[in-house]
Amino acid sequence: MTYKSKQEILKQYFGYDSFREGQAFLVDSILAGKDVVGVMPTGAGKSICFQVPSMMFEGITLVISPLISLMKDQVNALTQAGIKAAYLNSSLTLNQYHRVLQNARNGEYKLLYVAPERLLTEEFLDFAQNSNIAMFTIDEAHCISQWGQDFRPSYLKIIDFLSQLPKRPVVSAFTATATAQVREDIVSSLKLTNPEILVTGFDRKNLSFEVIKPADKFQTLCDFLKQKQEETGIIYCTTRKTVEEVCDRLTKQGYLATRYHAGLTDQERKENQDDFIFDRMRIIVATNAFGMGIDKSNVSYVVHYNMPKDLESYYQEAGRAGRDGGPAECVLLYSGQDVRMNLFLIDNNKDAEYAETELEELIKSKDRERLKKMTFYCHTNNCLREYILNYFGDTAPNFCGNCSNCKTNFETIDITVEAQKILSCVYRVKERYGVKTIIDILRGSKNEKILHLRLDSLPTYGIMKNGEKQVREIINYLILNDYLALTTDQYPVLKLGNRSREILIDKAEIQMKLAKDIEALKPNKKVKPELLGVDQILLERLKKIRLQFASQQKVPAFVIFTDSALIDMCDKLPLNDSEFLMVSGVGEAKLKRYGQRFISEISDFVSGKNG
Ligand code: ADP
Ligand code: ZN
Prior knowledge:
By secondary structure, the protein is of the alpha/beta class.
């Protein structure tokens, strides 16, 4: 047996010339026998970090993964790269299950993906105790933490399992979203020994961020989609009902849209997902049930029709855009109703069953706290990217130039008097009303509630002439900065905040940034920058061939080659095997399978023949 270097493995199997940020460090640490925790954003390339060393170890690597679809995608991709891999989960028949386990006993796989529920079954334990397990990898490792989103009790079996092995393998854990607390939880729950912890920057530079507070969400969505006719995107909604509604209305308007949520049959879910992945549908309207393990590289926008429950979810879902590294847009359509809906979902969450009510209450209050931070994201007038990165414990400059706040023309105005009026009003009504009522009082509304409760006799009635939207913006700013506080009940009530004294008693001067012209956000240019200089005709011809291979093998197109690999072909115009190997994303297995066909198309193109 000849020993290959990590670079040689990367090139030969995955077709890449160099490791990305953090990858080489984690691979080296693993090879040196150290436990590792890799915290990297979606799309950063976590899989390579354990797949490359798995090819260099003698013995098998077990990979724990929470979802069937995720395992399937990864095993698919590995098989395409010429690496022997399989999975064990509930999608297999009993026969298939035994066959895979037998193959594994015979040492036929380098990687075996396993659902956490399987680990402690008698059969699997017997296999594991009698095999040479080189490495144990935990994907989506945040699932082990009760403080993270997506806590999975079955992940707690991992430590039991490890303790029953005759020899402890190297343990590597990976996650995309982890705050410091979750990170510590991963290390302690897995009892990692002196691990190397690598946190790469969370910034996804190719993503732009935008928050809109539309009067009419659907109209705003349509205006956005009009500029995206040729592109592929995901629209996330909080509830199944909204998914149905939005999808219906889009279809009626002629969009190629399909839907995805947990209320559909397994078969329809699968069909719809495939329609989207195989590019038969341009748009998928979905709940958060969609997406984990979706490695579709050419998603160029993610719209959130509703605000999600926390920034972890938001960044993970929005992060499904632009995985090919090309520019992509993440848009959030906010309304106050989203906050109430999420509060309701937190209070009625039946996902996890907790033995102790105390624990349940603690977890729910953490959920509410996260929701609050998510809401602040929608209200801040500062750089959105900075806000996200700070949330995940990263430092960031306060101007990115690529989010809706950085692109908006703000002016700083003095709101000292406005702030005093608003706080006095909240004080006068003894902190009993929500934002809407406070605004109505301040602006002198004559609506029924106001008149019925005689709120029009208050001294603060009708003392503000500003537009409703502006008063609301100022109130949000005051909440954001602790001058006011919003309770987290079902009907949130405005209270005086910790810093209210500064305004009411110390008469502090308050300034805030207000948008000068919201129109500053221009629709994006037609051609994506990375496509400039690429021959569109050749690219289309290569995409056709890719589609033929994909349909023959019943796999998504990007499993054959990603868009960026095809673009690189157009750029390098390879005319023989060794030139084809220079294309980023082409390894030896893919050269063997697809090289000839693509090379002949390219040489036809170069010599002027039609495709
Ligand atoms: P993650 O699991 O971190 O979300 P993946 O492992 O799915 O990310 O990788 C995302 C994409 O980046 C994949 O298409 C993968 O092939 C590609 N990729 C990973 N490492 C490299 C590299 N060193 N060079 C080029 N592309 C890479
Ligand atoms: Zn910014």
